[in-house]
Amino acid sequence: MGIILDLLKEIPLSAVLRERLAETEKQIGNLESENAVLKSQVSALQSDLEREQKEKSRYKDALEEHLSYQGKLEPKSYAD
Predict the structure, then answer these.
(1) CA distances, 70 to each of 43, 57, 67 (Å)
(2) pLDDT per residue as tens digits for the range 51-72
(3) Cα separation, 23 vs 30, whole angstroms
(4) So what's the pLDDT on residue 79?
(5) Which residue in 10, 25, 73, 80 is a FRET match for 57, CA 20 to 30 A apart?
(6) What is the DSSP letter of 78?
(7) Sign of dihedral through CA atoms 31, 37, 43, 46?
(8) pTM, whole model, 2 decimals?
C-alpha cells in the first residue's frame, strides 16, 4: 500500500512538471525562432557593411586620384 500512496503523491507533481516542461519547450521554440531571425539580420548587416566598405574604398581611391592630379597641375604664370 505504501507504493500506491507514493504514486498518488507524485501524480500532482507530475502534472506540474509536465506543465513546466511544456512551458520550457515553448520558450525554447520561441528562442530558436528569435535566434534564426537574429542570425538572418546579422548576415544582412554583414553584407551591408561589406558593401559600404567597398564603396568607401572606391571613394577614397577616387579622392586620392583627384588629389594626385591636382598636385601635378602647376599654375601657369601669366606675368611673362
Answers:
(1) 41, 20, 5
(2) 999 999 999 999 988 888 877 7
(3) 11
(4) 59
(5) 73
(6) -
(7) negative
(8) 0.60
65, three cell numbers: 586620384
Residue type, 24: T
Give the three cell numbers for residue 46.
554583414
Grid cell for residue 24: 520550457
* 74 SS3 class: coil
Which residues in 10-25 are b (16+ Cβ under 10 Å) and which e? eeeeeeeeeeeeeeee
Runs of H (alpha helix) within 1-80: 2-72
Amino acid at 63: L
Give the three cell numbers for residue 66.
Answer: 583627384
